[in-house]
Amino acid sequence: MTSEITLFVNPTAGRGRGARAAQPAASALRDAGFSVRTILGEDADDALRRARDAVAEGTGALIAVGGDGLMSLALQAVAGTPTPLGVVAVGTGNDFARALDLPIRDPAAAGRVVADALKGGPVREIDLGRVGDRWFGSVLASGFDSRVNDRGNRMRWVGGRFKYDLAILAELAAFKPITYRITLDNGPAHEIEATLIAVGNGTAYGGGMRICADAVMDDGLFDVTVVGECSRTTLLKVFPQVYKGTHLSHPVVSVHRVSSITLEAAGITAYADGEPLGGLPLTATCVPRAVRVLGAASPARSTGD
After folding, report:
1. How many structural domains are present in the chain?
2. From 148's CA, which of 113, 169, 260, 274 has a CA 20 to 30 Å away?
3. C-alpha torsion angle, residues 51, 56, 59, 64 (rounded to 10)
4. Three-class DSSP labels, 259-283
């Protein structure tokens, strides 16, 4: 007997790659013996409603075909349910798939990975971040990086990581430190001057910027990267290191591992998984084992002493 699974497709992801990717992904799944239905939405709200309906009706898996924006929508549908998530990453950034070492821009291979997992292959239970009723899988950005995101999202004429590089340069012209009030876990609130605070369940945002490079997606904790008050010159030196994750050793950078964080700052919009959450203040909580991801193997861990 075959199990019905659901392809959740963004036809506009990666300048049309979403629509083109659906067919080879579906073919790989059907070849493996699965019955596949496809759902599209007229807009994000309609797409999410359809995905939630599929989960409520008992689909065997929700397979998201698109970029990080669609992965974010899919997480809203499956988080906290037994329905596993498959990832066919064909967008621009694909940070969620990168963090889980899943195929990127190869929908047939991604379909085979999902099919193998559904037949007994690796399935990884990962943590998710939660802010109110919104879930996120990768990074919550606030500060300089969220302002870069604002500007990058307005740059319709250029795509990929390059637009974020351009947005960084543009935002530097108006750069000044931000006064935050932060609370880590149940500790006291305190004020700091910082350039940005990134809350990482995953490692990266912006198409490979490894802002929370050491984050582990199933340790029950966020990695909170704080880039402290610094000059434009220092920021220009530090930010290119983000692509390799080597910025974490810089003196202006600190990392905190916590299960929850409250952020307050005037005039700052937060983004999670590249999608706007709204203005600060907010509280983010790490929810352990909130979703099962098909084909994502757990990383090797050091046993230590």
Report:
1. 2
2. 260
3. 20
4. CEEEEECCCCEEEECCEEEEECCEE
Tens digit of each residue's pLDDT (9 = 90 or more) over 139-163: 999 998 888 877 777 776 665 556 6
**What's the rounded Cα separation, in Å, for the pair 186 and 188?**
7
Cβ neighbours of residue 258 under 8 Å, at least 6 residues apart?
Answer: 184, 185, 221, 222, 224, 286
Note whether residue 297 is domain-resident.
Answer: no
92: how many CB neighbours lie within 10 A of its CB?
Answer: 20
Sign for the pseudo-dihedral over CA of 127, 131, 133, 135: negative
User: Using alpha carbons only, what angle is made at residue 275 by residues 74 and 97, rounded to the nearest 5 degrees?
Assistant: 50
Residue 305 has pLDDT above 50, yes or no: no
Instruction: Quickly list DSSP for 35-58.
Output: EEEEE--SSHHHHHHHHHHHHHTT
Asked if 117 and 151 sit in the same domain, the reply is no
**Residue with the larger pLDDT of the pair 212 and 16:** 212
Report cis status (omega within 30 of 0) of the bond before 281. yes
Contact 293, 84 (CB under 8 A): yes
DSSP H helices in the chain = 13-31, 44-56, 68-78, 95-99, 107-118, 144-154, 161-172, 232-238
Of the CA atoms within 13 Å of residue 231, those in its CB half-sphere come to: 3
Q: Residue 240 is part of a domain; what is its CATH number? A: 2.60.200.40
